[in-house]
Specification:
By secondary structure, the chain is of the alpha+beta class. It folds into two domains: about 70 residues; about 80 residues, ATP synthase, E subunit, C-terminal (hypothetical protein PF0899 fold, 2-Layer Sandwich). It is about 70% helix and about 10% strand. The protein has four helices and four strands. A four-stranded mixed β-sheet has the order 2-1-3-4. Helix 2 packs across helix 3.
Length: about 190
């Protein structure tokens, strides 16, 4: 083998070794880059997932707060409207009671209230109170029940109050008291 052949053989071996080594190094770099990229991709996906969940969670909280605030606003408006309708209704009831007090049936209702108090007393002393506006019916009540009614110091809006001292009992059938009780319990239901 001549020197040139040896040199060519050496060059060919060296070049093939260098190509083989560079291919192996390139494969190792490529593999390392692929692993690094895959690790980076997984980390970014995980981070993006956490950010998305945090954003969604924040949006849900905000939506819940806004929904609750809206719901409370609607409830306040509903309650206000209910109270408004209740006021209209009870204003009309009071007007009709006032009209009823002017009818001929009203004094008979007072007499029935006094008789109810007498039954409740069971023969014991009964003190009957009427509204100041009902003073004109005292004579009729005395004639029909035998009891002289007194005028109440407090407005009653009509009806009868009876005090039975022996039983320490107050029977309050005044219209103001009955209306207040009904008003407190009355609820307008939505259809």
């Amino acid at each position: 083998m001549t020197v040139e052949e040896k040199l060519e053989h050496f060059t060919s071996l060296t070049v093939s070794n260098a190509l083989k080594n560079s291919a192996e190094t390139l494969d190792a770099i490529r593999e390392n880059m692929d692993e690094s990229f895959e690790k980076y991709r997984k980390e970014r996906l995980e981070t993006a997932k956490k950010e998305r969940e945090a954003t969604l969670s924040g949006l849900k909280r905000r939506m819940n707060r806004e929904f609750t605030a809206g719901e409370m606003h609607i409830k306040r408006k509903y309650m206000h409207k209910q109270e408004e309708l209740k006021n209209i209704l009870f204003t009309e009831v009071e007007r009709r009671l006032s009209e009823y007090r002017k009818t001929s049936d009203y004094p008979a209702g007072l007499v029935r209230g006094v008789k109810k108090a007498q039954e409740l007393a069971g023969g014991e002393e009964v003190i009957i109170y009427l509204d100041k506006e009902d003073e004109k019916f005292i004579t009729r009540i005395k004639n029909e029940t035998g009891i002289t009614a007194l005028i109440s110091d407090f407005p009653m809006g009509g009806g009868v109050r009876a005090h039975i001292p022996s039983k320490n009992l107050l029977m309050d059938d005044s219209y103001n008291t009955r209306l207040a009780e009904i008003r407190d319990k009355y609820v307008i239901k939505a259809e």
